Predict the 3D structure of the following.
Amino acid sequence: MTLPSLPSPHAVLSPAVVVPVGLPHVPPAPYRSQLRRFLVVGAITTVAYLLLFSALHPLVGEQAANAIALLLTADANTAGNRWLTFGFTGRLHVVRHHVRGFVAFGVALALSSGALAWLDAGGVSDMRVHIAVLLVANVIAGAIHFVLLRSWAFSGG
């Protein structure tokens, strides 16, 4: 008696494929997939933001460096998330998505500006501390950003 062969693990399976008992097939949730992609886009744009902030800080001061660096990376972040995280291509709703992404940028600007003001009020001038605090502020802003983009900016086109 010959046993039926199972498809290669690298084969593309359709939803109609029967999974053997004991090996449940649980497709990754769109949420988790989107979150992973969002984290990649966010990591790249956060590194760019921190590098820009560090370069601009001595030239224009911390608050201006923060605003400029965020502004320069916000559009790239929205474009990257629009395409990679949420799968939108072409021009359909592009203006709406970028305007709504700009609202999410406002959240990041408020958090990071507040964090810098808090450091100034405490007399902290060490650039390493500024970078660490901005990183934490960006992680918090990123969580809010993901929720805003997923539930509002990119929902329904």
About this structure: Confidence is low (pLDDT under 50) at residues 3-28. The radius of gyration is 21 Å. The helical segments are 30-60, 62-85, 94-121, 127-153.
